[in-house]
C-alpha cells in the first residue's frame, strides 16, 4: 500500500503514524469511522464509539455500561437474561414478572422446573398434593372439590357415595330413592328389572316398581273401567265401600252424568244420580 493509499477513505487525511480502523478493506481515521459506521446505544441513545465495547442482541446495540436489566438495573454482561416486550430482564426479574405463580404457595415457578397445570392454575410439583394424605398427585387421576384436590383413594374414603344396591362407589350421577343413592344402572324395577332412571315409577314396601308391574301387582282397579288407579300426576279418584273409581268414571249408571261432588244412590253395585235412582232403597 502506497503512502497515498494509506489515507482515510472518508476525509482523505493521512493515516501514517495514527490509529485507524479497517472497513471492507478500506482504512478510516477513528473520527470518520465513528461518524460513519458506529451504532447507537439502545439505552442512552449515544454513539458507541470504536473504543467502546459494542454489545449486540437481535440487531440492537448497547454500551457495556448500559447493558442492564430493565427492572433491577443489574448488569447483564455475561449473565443469562430474557426479553419481555422489548425489555431485557435478568433471570430473577423475568421469573418474578413473567413466570407462573404456584396456586398453593404463591411463589414463582422458576423456568426449567417442573410445574403441574390443572383447571387453568399452576403448582410446583411438590405443592400439587392430595388435600387429605398430602402425597404428590403428579399425573395420577384426581377428583377436585371446593376444599381442594384429592387422589381417587382419599376422595372415595372421605366423600364418595356408595350404591345402595351393589355397594360400590358412585363416581358420577346417581338416583336418590328413600334418601339412599343408587347407580342409575342399578336402580331397577323390583318386578321386571328394567332401568327406572328415566321412567315414572311407584314404591311399595320401600321397593321401586315400574308402572306396569305396580299396576299389575298392587294397583286398585276402577269399578267402571277396570283399569288401574295409580294416582300419578295428581289424578283424583273416588272411594266408597271398598270400591274405587277414577273421577272421570264416577258417573250415573243410567244417564252417565258425573256424580263427583254430587249426592248419589246405590243399588247392589250400581250408582245412580238422584233422578235416575228414584225408588232405590239406599240414599247417599
From TrEMBL:
Annotated ranges, domain LIM zinc-binding: 38-76, 102-137, 222-259
Gene Ontology cellular-component annotations: nucleus; Z disc
Keywords for the protein's UniProt record, in alphabetical order: LIM domain, Metal-binding, Nucleus, Repeat, Zinc, Zinc-finger
Taxonomic superkingdom: Eukaryota
GO terms (BP aspect): positive regulation of transcription by RNA polymerase II
Compartments reported by the entry: Nucleus
InterPro entries: LIM_FHL1/2/3/5_N (IPR056807), Znf_LIM (IPR001781)
Any Pfam family the entry gives: LIM_FHL2-3_N
Gene3D superfamilies: Cysteine Rich Protein
MF (Gene Ontology): transcription coactivator activity; zinc ion binding
Main localization category: nucleus
SUPFAM superfamilies: Glucocorticoid receptor-like (DNA-binding domain)
Name of this protein: Four and a half LIM domains 5
